[in-house]
Amino acid sequence: MKELKRNKSSENQPKLAAFIDNDNIHKGVKEQHEDAIGYDINEVVEYLRDEGDLRFGRVYLNPGDFQGKKGLLHKFNMDLLRPVYTDSYRHKSLADTNIIWDISEAYHNRPEIEKFAIVSGDKDFLPVMRHLHEGGKDGVLMYVDGTEAKDLRKTANEIGWETYTIPPYKGASNR
């Protein structure tokens, strides 16, 4: 991942909305790193805070992902990240459609948001990334190296979005 830019004043930072596809990131880390137990959501949030003044965010979870981890869910709320529980259909998470809908709503209903963060390597976000750029919005893309759609990363670089890779977490069992 790129080096963190600590100690920025939030008043000079762009107002940021973040959308985290937990299932995509978690599966990607486990796929690429067999000894990993997930990723460190706290580190992801720190990177997001370095990119902007986090004003709005969602973490898309499958039911049961964070059962018994109330402390982590409380931290999400403190970081303005609301957990959104998504269903699956035939073993496929429906998070992507929820994320795209929420990004669209934030774009249209929260004009103060200047920068959008997409934390996923899924190619389904290509069109929304392009639309945000065409609408004058800056962005950040975070993904697990080796599992991201190459066109997604390429497009992010072409339109000037910052890109970060998410490292595996090998410590305690919180993901």
Please characterize this protein's 3D structure.
- This protein has 175 residues and is an alpha/beta fold.
- It has a single domain, classed as Rossmann fold.
- The strands form two sheets. It has a six-stranded parallel β-sheet, with helices on both faces. Strands 4-5 form a two-stranded antiparallel ribbon.
- Helix 3 links the parallel strand 2 and strand 3.
- The longest helix is centred in the middle third of the chain and has 15 residues.
- It is globular, with a radius of gyration of 15 Å.
- It starts with 14 loop residues before the first strand and ends in a 10-residue tail after the last strand.
- The relative contact order is 0.23.
- The N terminus is likely disordered.
Labels describing this entry:
disordered N terminus, Rossmann fold, alpha/beta, 23% strand, 6 helices, globular, 175 residues, two-stranded antiparallel ribbon, six-stranded parallel beta sheet
Mean pLDDT: 82
Which value, in Å, is the CA radius of gyration? 15 Å
Backbone shape: globular
Beta-strand residue fraction: 15-25%
Order of helices and strands: EHHEHEEEHEHEHE
CATH level 1 name: Alpha Beta
Q: What number of structural domains do the residues give? A: 1
Secondary structure category: alpha/beta
- The portion of residues assigned to helices is 25-40%
Query: Low-confidence stretches at least 5 residues in length (pLDDT < 50)?
Result: 3-7
**Tally of DSSP helical segments:** 6
Determine the CATH topology: Rossmann fold
Main beta sheet: 6 strands, parallel
CATH architecture: 3-Layer(aba) Sandwich
Strand order of the largest sheet: 3-2-1-6-7-8
**CATH homologous superfamily grouping:** 5'-nuclease
The span between the termini is 18 Å
Q: How many beta-strand runs? A: 8
